[in-house]
Here is the input.
Amino acid sequence: MYSEDVKNLIIDLYDNGPILMSKLGEEKRPIVEEAEKQGLVKIRKMNIREVIYLTIKGLQEVEKIKGIEHEVNVEEEISKLTQMEIKLLLRLLEGFKPVRKLLEEIGTRKYSPLQKLEQKGLIKSFKNRRRTLNYRIISLTVPGWIVAKKLAER
Here is the structure.
């Protein structure tokens, strides 16, 4: 279904988070473009650089490859969320965000809602200066996406 190179790319993005295109190198650009055509990754321009990250379809594919399954009781999860956590999940439906920008958008400086969401397994944070820019990046997990999608429908 997918080439071995594409599989390796999406598994790397799943395990280690988004990466700058410049860090991958030009020889990997065709692999990234192939994955983008299949809807597994997206390329976002940030400042002058291009950041490659997994789409929800890409997340789901990696979890199929790794054999990870989730059972999410959506109504129960939603009932446990605070207003701040709901705002965070809805903002993350647009794709990954740098942590400060995300907190700025919802009007807070407190990290506790992010920590609670990460403990529940609804989001994942990545901080790796060698891969991306100099800040922590937050993105949804598959269960987080399911809950956020349901919240958006309300």
Notes: The chain has two domains: 4-66, 74-153. The first strand starts at residue 19 and ends at 20. DSSP finds nine helices and six strands in the chain. The chain has a mean pLDDT of 85.
